[in-house]
Amino acid sequence: MSGEAQALEQPAAEEPQRYTLRLFVTGATPVCSRAVAGIRSFCDRFLKGRYSLEVIDVYQQPALADEQRILATPTLVRMSPLPFRRWVGNLSDPERLSAALGLSPKP
To answer: pTM for this structure?
Structure first.
């Protein structure tokens, strides 16, 4: 078998899973500021290059918060991959956050 034929038969390397996250906060309070910093740190550490994060202030976008049924902040919602998952409250523990959102951190 030629080298060209072998290359065609080999499975392509699987693309790493991409995550779309929304973090709902209430203004620039110290708790919400820590939540934003914490989730960015988590994502940069465990999901570097394979996530998008949208920070949503429920004061500025109440309809979006209502649509997502956000009752408390900070709330992190995993929009993709499906199914949706959410985490409310303290975002500082990477192991609990990873497990709660069903994330597969990069080794």
So the answer is: 0.77
